[in-house]
Design a protein that fits this description.
Order of helices and strands: HEEEEHEEH
Number of strands: 6
Distance between the termini: 23 Å
Structural class: alpha+beta
Shape: elongated
Largest sheet: 6 strands, antiparallel
Strand content: 15-25%
Length: 187
């Protein structure tokens, strides 16, 4: 391979690594915005008043979107705020059907178990929004895939930030090396 061909490949490689570093940087910014928004929401929910609700219905529902079967916990709760009888819903995130290959396997198992442990009449302590009493959030976050999202968002944010710094550093180092080699060959 000619020296010119090697130089072109190095430039393309450096450009690709730099572009991926910039993309990871944009992902970092997006993850930061989402994490800050979720953290703020979760912080506000933690300050809402508490009330003991009772389960009216709790089970797994199938998502209605997409081609893949996915399931999530859907619980209908009732509670009283002042003289007002409230009905509210709480949900988990969704998991694939057991019929679909997944890793780790049997992701639906903990959701099925949690729903089975919360039959009709089970008391559950929730926070309710003082501005809209029908909005509720669990006080204890033992519902699988139903608790705070901020800890996982922080992990994703960290991965993107580290990837961005590493990729941009690699692009910078390879540029400095190629500039040094070019200066040496010209000088």
């Amino acid at each position: 391979m000619t020296t010119e061909g090697v130089a072109k490949r190095q430039v393309l490689w450096r450009g690709f690594v730099g572009l991926m570093g910039l993309f990871a940087g944009l992902c970092t910014i997006f993850a930061l915005v989402v994490t800050a928004g979720e953290a703020w929401k979760e912080h506000a929910q933690a300050r809402w008043p508490e009330v003991t609700a009772h389960v009216d219905r709790c089970g797994l529902d199938q998502t209605s979107s997409g081609r893949r079967e996915k399931y999530y916990i859907h619980c209908r709760l009732s509670y009283t705020v002042g003289s007002e009888q409230i009905a509210a819903n709480i949900y988990s995130s969704n998991v694939p059907s057991p019929a679909i290959w997944q890793y780790p396997p049997n992701q639906i198992g903990p959701l099925e178990q949690w729903a089975a442990e919360h039959p009709q009449g089970t008391p559950i302590v929730v926070h309710y929004d003082p501005a809209n009493h029908r909005k509720a959030a669990l006080v204890t976050t033992d519902m699988p895939l139903g608790g705070p999202r901020t800890p996982n968002n922080l992990k994703v944010l960290g991965v993107f930030a580290v990837a961005s710094v590493l990729l941009l550093t690699i692009a910078r180092i390879t540029r400095l090396r190629s500039d040094a080699v070019a200066a040496e060959s010209n000088g």
